[in-house]
Structures are given as structure tokens and as C-alpha cells.
Amino acid sequence: MTEKLWNGRFEQPTDKLVEEYTASIHFDSRLYRHDIEGSIAHCRMLAECGIIPHEEASLIVQTLGEILRDIERGKIKLDASQEDIHMAIENELTARIGETGGKLHTARSRNDQVALDMRLYMREALNEIRDLVSLVQSTLVEMAEENLDVIMPGFTHLQHAQPVLFSHHLMAYYEMFGRDFARLGECSVRTDVMPLGSAALAGTAFPTDMEWTARELGFPRVIGNSMDAVSDRDYMIEFCSTAAILMMHVSRMAEELVIWSSAEFAFVEISDAFCTGSSIMPQKKNPDVPELMRGKTGRVYGNLFALLTIAKGLPLAYNRDLQEDKEPVFDSVDTVGATLRLLGKMLPQIRINKDKMALMAGQGFTAATDLADYLARRGVPFRKAHHVAGRIVQYCIQAGKELGECSLDELKTFHMAFDEDVFSYLDISSIVGRRQSVGGTGAPRVAEAIARAKAELASREASSKKNTQMEE
Is residue 387 among the annotated active site residues? Predict the structure, then answer.
């Protein structure tokens, strides 16, 4: 059994069941790199401030680097007796260099150490997920540009509403993911705060320099209250909230792909690489990947509620309940990352059935609003024009025909304002083309949206490259 670093106060060893129950190393071991990075910065700060000798700090830093390499090579065995990754690394350090290794924990607590590790982890995860969101957005823009001539029925209440450009539909998701990208960035700002040096809850009596540590680790600022520093999980809850909204957007798209790939719609065909078959029905091609994306949204929602529930009744400052914060966060990071990678790979391989979309765009009386608009343009009050168009739709339903199949004489029985030009006015391409309002589905407007999106993505990429060069 590994000797506890805190066992001076205790007369009895920890019960084995307690060790197993309280251990977190089986999931927080993924923090090893962040823990060592933070420890190295802390150690160098201790030396800079004259709290420990430089030669001892050099030995500790060197040994931590060796431990990092050995963990990555699988040479260090981690088990429940070590409690967590922080204790495991410190135990290994002390085993290698003796009591000098114990000086690393001067002027810090596991409370602020864990807080730092999670902020380092989340900062990295947020950047990676933002990059994946940008990748999906870029894919949507490419698809929209390639299909700028494709018309489809737009829906409200899942009923045929008005014809729209397929590109316009895709760019709606671009906007959704754009808000997700912004929220992730805002979460990054609140995550990127340095807590190390707050110790257990009250700060430390040693003459430390938290600003120095912050600069060393690339944090723009230091947290303002030591009690808040060790107990704050807002940034993790905020991430899980943002992840839940992001997955909701993915789920909406996944739902449409499931519907559109059905025989009843046949708007798209998902590549075989992203589908599965049936164990009993040979003809089946199931859209399992979109269905799982839809299903995994639920677990990300659950992670958010788990964190909110953990935090809701905790008094200041640190409580062991907060050990339970990591698994929901790790799971959301993993689920969102895997989903976005797969979505970005699946979308370009979807085959678009342009003819079927165009055919259905003209069905279901999708031109009815334009029929009313036609009369309104000829001076008929819109409310009356709306009523006339509704009566014509009712007539067509009873006669088993579409609006475009009515003759001029038939239309004139409902209102004398109809003339020959009504038929060109009701052409599906003409209907779409007239939607030139800001954000509308007219081709010029959609092309403008695509151009803006491409410029936005290019600006992001340039900014990312610039930041990478500055870091290097």
C-alpha cells in the first residue's frame, strides 16, 4: 500500500474499500501532462522567489520531465492506492529523488493544484473543439457553394411551407454552429484564469509570485479570490452547457438526415461507410451514425445536469463532492469531439438527390403565399388575398391538382385580379429568386452569406496561425 502524503494526522490506515471508493486515478490520469506542466511552473516560481534553492528546483523539474516521458511510454503503473494522478506523480517524484521531491508541494494545496490542472485541460479542450466546429462550418459552406442551384421544400411543423435553396438550409446550420463557436470562445475567456497559489482556500504565507506563474503557463490573469479559486466550477458548467447546445444543433441536423434519407423523402443518401444493415432484413440501410449523434446528445445533457446537481448545495470552499466534476466534463469533451469529427467526415460524402428535392419543392401548395402576394401587389388587401389563396388551395385539394395546374379561368372565378403573368410568378425558381430580403433564400443573398462565411473562416484560420507562431 502506498503511504499517503497526508497520513501524519491518522493512526489507522485507510480502509481498502474507502481507497477504491474515493480513488479518482482511473479517470483523472488523463491530466498527467497538465499536472506536470503546472508543477514545473510552480517549482520554477518557488526558486525565483527564493523559497527553495535553484539547484533543488532544477532537479525536481528534470525529474518531472523524466516522469512525464515514462508515463507516456507506459513505464509507470498507476493504481487506486495512489488516490489520484497528483499524488501518483508526487509519490513517484519522491521515490526518485527523496525528500527534495517533497518540497514541490510548498505553497500549494491539492485544491489549487486540481483547479489549475482542470483549467489547463479545459483551455486545451476548448481550443480543439472550436477547431472542430470550424471544420464542420467549412464543410457546410463548401456544400452550400456546390449546391447553390438546388431548390427544396422548406418546412414548418414538418409540413411543406415555401420553396428554399438547399444552400440556404445548410447555411442556417452554419449560423447555429457560429453561435456555438462564439460561446466556446467566451467560455475560454472565463476558463483562462490562473488559480495556483490560492492553496487550500486562504492563500499562502510564502512570498509567492502568482503573476510569474501565470505568465509561465500562458494565463492572461490571476484569479481574484482564493476561496473562489478552489471551489469555482462555473467554467466547467458553462462548457457543459455550451456542449449541450452544440449537440442540440448536431441532433437537429442528424434528425433531418434521418428523415431525408428515408424512402418517403429520398432527398439524400448517406454513404455506406456511415450506415449499417439489419441482422434479419437484407434490404435495410440504417442511418446509425446520425441516430447515434441524436442519442449521444442526451448524455451530454445529462453531464450538464450532473455538474449543476453536484455544485448546487456546496458551501465554500472545497468539498470532496467536486471530485465528481471531472467525469462529466471528460465525457462531454470526448463525445462532442468524436461527434464533430465524424460529422465533418460524413457530410461531404452525402449524395444529394437534386431532382427529388426540386420535385417536392413544387408540391404541397408551397406557392400559396406567393399567390396571395400576387394579389396584394395588384392592390388587394393582404388579408383578403390570403383568404382567396386559401380558397384556391381548398379547391385544388378537392380537385386533386396543384396550384400551377389551374387555368386562368379557374383562378378568375376566385378573383378577377388574376392575369396571365400569374403563372410565371408562381414558377418555383421565380418564387425563390424574389426572396431578396436580408438573410433570405434568394440566390444572391445566399451567395453573399457564403462569401461572408468564407471570409470569416479565413480570418479565423489566419488568427489561429498567428497565435501559433507567437507561441512558438
Answer: no
pLDDT of residue 167: 98
pLDDT of residue 465: 80
CB atoms within 10 A of CB 272: 10
Please tell me the CATH superfamily of domain 362-433, with its number. Answer: Fumarase/aspartase (C-terminal domain) (1.10.40.30)
Give the end-to-end CA distance of the chain in Å, rounded to a whole number.
43
pLDDT for the residue numbered 21: 77
Rounded Cα distance between 39 and 188, Å, is: 22
Residue 464, pLDDT score: 81
Nearest to 222 by CA among 231, 204, 230, 210: 210
3-state secondary structure 49-101: CCCCCHHHHHHHHHHHHHHHHHHHCCCCCCCHHHCCHHHHHHHHHHHHHHHHH
**Known active-site residue 26:** no
- Whether residue 3 is predicted with pLDDT greater than 60 in this model: the reply is no
Q: Of the residues 262, 278, 459, 463, which is catalytic?
A: 278
Q: What is the pLDDT of residue 83?
A: 81
Going from the C-alpha of 84 to that of each of 28, 63, 401, the distances in angstroms are 7, 19, 71
Question: Is pLDDT above 70 for 5?
Answer: no
Q: Are 161 and 153 in contact (CB under 8 A)?
A: yes
Question: Which option is the CATH number for 7-106: 1.10.10.10, 1.10.275.10, 3.10.20.600, 3.40.50.1100?
Answer: 1.10.275.10
Enumerate the domain spans of the chain: 7-106, 111-147+173-205+220-353, 362-433
Mean pLDDT (whole number) for 261-269: 96
Q: Name the more confident of 9 and 27.
A: 27
Residue 319 confidence (pLDDT): 93
Checking if the pLDDT of 151 tops 60, the result is: yes
* Residue of 419, 442, 439 lying closest to 431 (CA atoms): 442
Reported as type and span, the H/E element at residue 462 is helix 443-471
What is the second-level CATH architecture of the domain 111-147+173-205+220-353? Up-down Bundle (1.20)
Closest CA to 432 of 146, 169, 141, 157: 169
For residue 305, give the C-alpha cell.
445536469
- DSSP reduced 3-state for 153: strand
Contacts of 213 (CB under 8 A, 6+ apart): 41, 42, 45, 194, 196, 197
- DSSP class of residue 352 equals E
Residue 388 has pLDDT above 50, yes or no: yes
Place of cell 494522478: 85
